[in-house]
Design brief:
This protein is of the alpha+beta class. The chain folds into two domains: 51 residues; 141 residues, OB fold (Dihydrolipoamide Acetyltransferase, E2P). It is built from five helices and eleven strands, in the order H-H-E-E-E-E-E-H-E-E-E-E-H-E-E-H. Strand 1 and strand 2 form a beta hairpin. The N and C termini lie far apart (67 Å).
Length: 204
């Protein structure tokens, strides 16, 4: 089989996978297309021969050198860092509000919220929009990398040390997914959005 034939088969498999994902979870499929457009088909050629991974879809992002992930069904979108309208009399980690596809959403600097070292924003900086029930908040994160399935057997919960969760993420994590040579901290989106600290917008 020629390399062109192999590439064509990979493309068919990719689009078939996206169609299947779209039928099960439209938001996950949309994010997959949004994140990987123009790059998804250039994956490692070994992917075609690898068995498919069965598991719930998560969106992976980075913060302070660690990989974290949120359930794809709770992710509204990923945007480049745009102009934010400041809001007076709020805590410092609330950077302001933006117009998110016709709705006003608060923008939270996740590094500041978690009391992490501040860094200069760059081309990889992203706004990650998370939603649970009626609550939608855009978080400034270091980068967003990929969508991946996480099988239940890969998730470690309960023991913080065993799960290798950094102290700043412990209050908002459900566990860690051990995937090959990666340890991805799984974010508890409802716990983050409805935490006491997140609900205190007023400046001290």
């Amino acid at each position: 089989m020629s390399s062109e034939d192999l590439k064509t088969l990979q493309q068919r498999d990719t689009f078939a996978a996206i169609q299947q994902m779209l039928a099960k979870a439209p938001s996950a499929a949309a994010l997959q297309m949004q994140l990987a457009q123009g790059q998804f088909l250039q994956a490692d050629n070994n992917v075609a021969s690898s068995p498919p991974v069965i598991g719930e879809q998560y969106l992976v992002f980075t913060l302070a050198g660690r990989e974290l992930a949120a359930k794809a069904e709770l992710v509204q979108g990923v945007e480049r860092l745009a102009e934010v309208t400041p809001v007076p009399n709020v805590v410092s980690w609330v950077k302001g509000v933006i117009n998110l596809r016709g709705s006003i959403a608060s923008v939270v600097d996740l590094r500041m919220f978690l009391d992490l070292e501040q860094v200069t924003h760059n081309q990889r900086t992203r706004l990650l929009s998370l939603q649970y029930n009626e609550m939608v908040i855009c978080f400034v994160v270091d980068s967003v990398s990929e969508m991946l399935p996480v099988p239940p057997s890969a998730i470690i919960t309960g023991n913080v040390r065993q799960a290798n969760i950094p102290p700043w993420a412990v209050p908002y994590a459900t566990g860690t997914a051990l995937l090959a040579n990666r340890a991805v901290v799984l974010l508890d989106v409802p716990r983050l959005l409805f935490s006491d600290k997140m609900q205190r917008y007023a400046a001290l």
